[in-house]
Amino acid sequence: DSGVTQTPKHLITATGQRVTLRCSPRSGDLSVYWYQQSLDQGLQFLIQYYNGEERAKGNILERFSAQQFPDLHSELNLSSLELGDSALYFCASSVAASGYHEQYFGPGTRLTVT
Amino acid sequence: GQNIDQPTEMTATEGAIVQINCTYQTSGFNGLFWYQQHAGEAPTFLSYNVLDGLEEKGRFSSFLSRSKGYSYLLLKELQMKDSASYLCAVGPGNAGNMLTFGGGTRLMVKP
User: Fold this and answer.
1) What percent of chain B has pLDDT over 90?
2) Cβ of A100 and B93 within 8 Å?
3) Which residues partner with A53 through β-bridges?
4) Contact A90/B42 with Cβ under 8 angstroms?
5) How far apart are CA B99 and CA B34, in angstroms?
6) What is the rounded distance in angstroms from the CA atom of residue B71 to the CA atom of residue B53?
7) Pairing relationship of beta strands A19-24 and A74-78 according to DSSP bridges
8) How many angstroms from the chain centroid is the CA of residue A104?
């Protein structure tokens, strides 16, 4: 158990819908990262927040957005869902914003868009 | 940008040694990570190299050559539970601390 929690574990929804994925980092960690893992794309970085502020952005679609709240939990919002958005979404956390710090991954949310 | 290559699949025998290679081309580099991921589960950290050379941690060792853009993960005394995907990742980038992952190498350990 990494100490990172994610809810829900599974999510099934239809195309065009909107969903929210939630992540709570390990106690003491200020950075939260979101990654998407699909069969054909591997594990891809989406976005990083540090202490409530966006820190880095990867290949995140405009239909996707995220935020980190004062209690440091984070939410990833996915809207206008398409079949291709079906994937495992992982949240990870680390102590600091940059430099070497091991990232701890949560168990993931499996999103299925039908 | 980042380009990370590793073999898609490998097979090895229980008790043997296996080496998983990773080559990378990156615009920014501050370390190479290896993660293990069992199917449907979260990646778990195995090792980190920032300087050239070999880092040993029990049955697992990782090597880095920054001049060659090359790393490998060495697994000794293979066990059936080592059957998993092994992900090579480069990070941090120029901003933040995100990891750029290779496609992963699926290792199958046979009796």
Assistant:
1) 77
2) no
3) A50
4) yes
5) 11
6) 9
7) antiparallel
8) 12
Work out the average pLDDT over A57-83: 96
pLDDT tens sequence across A10-51: 999 999 999 999 999 999 999 999 999 998 778 999 999 999
Contact A101 B50 (CB under 8 A): no
Is A50 close to B100, i.e. CB distance below 8 A? no
User: A-side interface with B, Cβ within 8 Å?
Assistant: 2, 4, 31, 33, 42-45, 48, 50, 55-56, 58, 88, 90, 94, 96-108, 110
Residue owning tokens 């092994």: B86
Q: What DSSP string runs through A43-109? A: EEEEEEEETTEEEEE-S--TTEEEEE-TTS-EEEEE-S--GGG-EEEEEEEESSSSSS---EE---E
Question: How many interface pairs between A and B have CB atoms less than 8 angstroms apart?
Answer: 69
Alpha carbons A88 and A100: distance in angstroms, whole number: 25
- Compute the residue count for chain B: 111
Q: How far apart are CA B33 and CA B10, in angstroms?
A: 19
Which is nearest to A108 in space by CA: A42, A44, A21? A21
Tokens linked to A102: 């091991």
CA atoms of A87 and A75, how far apart (whole Å): 16
Q: Do B88 and B101 touch, CB atoms closer than 8 A?
A: yes
pLDDT of B59-81, one tens digit each? 999 999 999 999 999 999 999 99
User: How high is the pLDDT of residue B92?
Assistant: 66
